[in-house]
Automatic annotation (TrEMBL):
Stated name of the protein: SAM-dependent methyltransferase
Methyltransferase domain: residues covered: 169-279
Pfam families for this protein: Methyltransf_31, WHD_Rv2258c
Gene3D superfamilies, sorted: Vaccinia Virus protein VP39 (3.40.50.150), Winged helix-like DNA-binding domain superfamily/Winged helix DNA-binding domain (1.10.10.10)
Organism for this UniProt entry: Actinoplanes nipponensis
Length: 349
């Protein structure tokens, strides 16, 4: 076997980077849980000062800071460590438009299912959303919520002609597959004259969503139902939304048909899905790698645990979504908006 040394060294460099990133994920979550990033965002600190401010052990904090600095997540100046404006923007504000620690929380939660996912490769069985680690539910919300904060009300809804004005005047919204209710709460807060009926088939998520709505002061205009996308109640909705969940369903066609029946004649269905091209080659990039990895551990197992026969995966692409809604009887479909992580589609009857 002839080894090309340059190619081998290139691969080893990639491997070392991936190994460091894998271990760093746990350290980022530690920083998230213990408030290290928030403390550092206020100004540079020594390890002892950070430990004192957060009620933690200085020796552990010292090692954590050095690793964070080696990875470029924290800036180092001799024995003082701090965050640049850009690092603080991504690491220190869970309510901002970008919060990187949430993605790592989701990743670590998903990896805890590795033995069961390995066995599922052998058997073809699924693993339902409710069987995942609890950090998956929290991490998923924290991964996607910043993008919703940045885009949902400012740009995604206004990109659907007439919808923003209708919601401001008072309309009915169904948020299908709502998870912990981040999108439901955002819409209820932005459109106080409208009502939101949210559903998710995972009872545990619905319980947390109800608490989030109470905490946000919008519980009077958001209702939650533990129901699948094929059975949620109500009709005559002016807007139906599905956020990053259609590809997780075993029967997305059944969901699409039910949504069509539940829509008002002039209503719109907004589909938000992970950014993806139609060809596999289109997704051979860092974002595609992230989504294929999550899809292997979360999306495909979830779909295979449900009846319906679909397992679209997180990189299904626009053509597959278009075909699905066309098969369900919809006649109008277009990409209305996009971000580096999401494609947004407008669907009408």
């Amino acid at each position: 076997m002839a080894i090309n040394e340059d190619k081998l060294n290139e691969f080893i460099g990639r491997f070392v980077g991936d190994l460091g990133a894998t271990v760093a994920a746990g350290n980022v979550v530690i920083g998230h849980r213990l408030g290290f990033y928030r403390a550092l965002a206020a100004g540079p600190l020594t390890p002892g000062e950070l430990a004192a401010r957060t009620g933690t052990d200085e020796r552990y904090v010292t090692e954590w800071l050095r690793g964070q600095a080696a990875g470029g997540y924290v800036d180092r100046d001799d024995d003082r460590y701090g965050l640049s404006e850009e690092q603080a923007f991504a690491l220190a504000d869970p309510d901002g438009p970008l919060y990187a620690p949430g993605a790592f929380l989701l990743a670590l939660g998903a990896l805890r299912a590795e033995p069961r996912i390995t066995e599922a490769f052998r058997t073809g069985a699924g693993l339902s959303w409710g069987e995942q680690d609890a950090d998956v539910f929290i991490g998923c919300e924290q991964f996607f919520r910043p993008g919703y904060i940045a885009n949902l009300v400012p740009s995604w809804i206004p990109a659907l002609p007439g919808t923003d004005a209708k919601l401001r005047a008072g309309a009915r919204i169904a948020d299908v597959g709502c998870g912990l209710g981040a999108s439901s709460v955002l819409m209820a807060a932005a459109y106080p004259r409208s009502t939101v009926h949210a559903c998710d088939y995972h009872e545990g998520s619905i319980e947390l969503a109800r608490k989030r709505a109470v905490d946000a002061g919008v519980a009077d205009r958001v209702s939650f139902e533990a129901a699948g996308a094929q059975q949620f109640s109500g009709d005559g909705y002016d807007l139906v939304t599905t956020f990053d969940c259609l590809h997780d369903m075993g029967d997305p066609l059944g969901a699409a048909r039910h949504i069509r029946e539940a829509l008002a004649p002039d209503g719109a269905w907004m589909i938000v899905e992970p950014a993806a091209g139609d060809a596999v080659a289109d997704n051979m990039n860092p974002v595609g790698r992230v989504y294929y990895g999550f899809s292997t551990f979360l999306c495909v197992p979830s779909a295979l645990s449900q009846p319906g026969g679909y397992a679209l995966g997180a990189q299904a692409g626009e053509a597959a979504i278009r075909q699905l809604v066309t098969d369900a009887g919809f006649t109008r479909f277009r990409r209305s908006s996009q971000t580096p992580f999401n494609n947004v589609y407008e669907v009408r009857r």
